[in-house]
Write a structure and sequence with these properties.
By secondary structure, the protein is an alpha+beta fold. It has a domain at 3-28 and 43-185: Ribosomal Protein S5, domain 2 (2-Layer Sandwich), CATH 3.30.230. 43% of the residues lie in helices and 22% in strands. It has 11 helices and 12 strands. It has helices at residues 3-15, 89-101, 125-141, 147-162, 169-176, 216-233, 243-249, 255-279, 283-299, 306-316, 350-371, and strands spanning 21-32, 42-58, 63-68, 73-78, 109-115, 181-186, 192-196, 201-207, 321-327, 334-340, 376-380, 387-388. Strands 1, 2, 3, 4, 5, 6, 7 and 12 form an 8-stranded mixed beta sheet that branches. Strands 9-10-8-11 form a 4-stranded antiparallel beta sheet. Helix 2 (89-101) crosses helix 3 (125-141).
Length: 389
């Protein structure tokens, strides 16, 4: 049974009428462009066919009542005088707060919610929840849907209401994804460009079944190192340093800062090269860039882990794998692989999913034998961003 059917059926059971609206917003996987976002650089994520779904109807007061079918919990609050609390409902409340702070008058609603975006796997379940909520508020309150503006408000909700210091990538791809495409995001201008995936390929997310530990200090340390490098180069951010300029002036940096900066500078270049490879349908070149990205994250930025390295190695052993890399902040979570499926239709099809299953099975077996851990493997299609169905 589809999640759309599940939330609709449960809404009808609870309220005795069909929902007025059904909204979905996807999770995401980043194909390439890691730790470039807070350096004003480029990222190439893809919205995946796993999403948060909400079936709902407007209320004639200013209350929000939303039932999570997964958690069997109800989030309920008034749009007048929002106060902080705890739990998953804070994401809904935070989006309402950000919208109202931006001057948007909001109407209340009630609904049922379900998601198949894994929580804690680095596939942006929180951004999917924020963008689904924003889409609902826009629909019931008569607000225009501006994907970039809504992404910014979702980020503000997560940063300032929930208290998680995320970048802008996750909300932008969940809001603005395009089916069958990745999305190049310029993290400085927030301009986006749909990028077609090479024909005959599919993307497979490989969850190591490990979760990031206490990495805030490591993240902050790397961010400070990147900012120090930018100051040495005399630019606002490492996005402004070319590979040639880096190589000419790298001797001015200490060894650690040099390696951190080298990752960001070369990763920005790889991301733009990945766009070119994808547009030319060159899966081999795209895979090689993904491989190089992993090596840079492992050796220069030092954010991989034993399990991520093992997963990437298992993926690359498969003949159908063009390339693989860790994805996300690192120290745990997921890797991503580009896999040959030999299906060349424009639409991502069930055939492609089935063609990737032998790869998924082989990698899972290899990883389990290597680490003793049981991974989760998700064969993904590129989906649209947040939408009213």
């Amino acid at each position: 049974m589809s999640l759309q059917h599940t939330v609709t059926q449960e809404f009808e059971r609870r309220y005795g009428v069909p929902p007025a609206l059904v909204v979905r917003a996807p999770g995401r996987v980043n194909l390439i462009g890691e730790h470039t976002d807070y350096n004003d650089g480029f990222v190439l994520p893809m919205a995946i066919d796993r999403a948060v779904w909400i079936a709902l109807q407007p209320r004639d007061d200013r209350r929000v009542v939303c039932t999570s079918l997964d958690l069997r919990q109800v989030a309920e609050f008034s749009l007048a005088g929002l106060t902080r609390g705890t739990g998953w409902g804070e994401y809904l409340k935070g989006v309402a707060w950000a919208l109202q702070e931006a001057g948007h008058p909001l109407q209340g609603w009630e609904g049922t919610l379900a998601s198949d975006v894994p929580i804690g796997a680095g596939l942006s379940s929180s951004a999917a929840l924020e963008m689904a909520t924003a889409r609902v508020f826009a629909a019931v309150s008569g607000l225009p849907w501006d994907a970039t503006a809504m992404a910014k408000l979702g980020q503000r909700a997560e940063n300032q209401w929930v208290g998680v210091n995320c970048g802008i990538m996750d909300q932008t791809i969940s809001a603005a994804g395009v089916a069958g495409h990745a999305l190049l995001i310029d993290c400085r201008s927030l301009q986006t460009q749909p990028v077609p995936l090479p024909p005959g390929t599919t993307v497979v997310v490989l969850d190591t079944a490990t979760r990031r530990g206490l990495v805030d200090s490591a993240y902050n340390e790397r961010r400070a190192q990147c900012e120090a490098a930018a100051r040495t180069f005399g630019v606002p951010a490492l996005r402004d340093v070319s590979v040639a300029q880096f190589e000419a002036q790298a001797g001015q940096l200490d060894e650690m800062t040099r390696r951190r900066a080298r990752h960001v500078v070369t990763e920005n270049a790889r991301t733009l090269q990945a766009v070119e490879a994808s547009e030319q349908g060159d899966a081999v070149a795209l895979g090689q860039l993904m491989d190089a990205s992993h090596a840079s994250l492992r050796d220069d930025f030092e954010v991989s882990s034993r399990e991520l390295d093992a997963m990437v190695a298992c993926a690359r052993q498969q003949e159908s794998c063009y390339g693989a890399r860790m994805t996300g902040a690192g120290f745990g979570g997921c890797a991503v692989a580009l896999v040959r499926t030999d299906c060349h239709s424009e639409e991502r099809s069930d055939e492609e999913s089935h063609a990737a299953h032998p790869f998924a099975t082989a990698v899972a077996g290899c990883y389990q034998a290597t680490t003793g851990l049981t991974p989760n493997v998700y064969v993904c299609a590129a989906s649209n961003g947040a939408q009213v169905i």
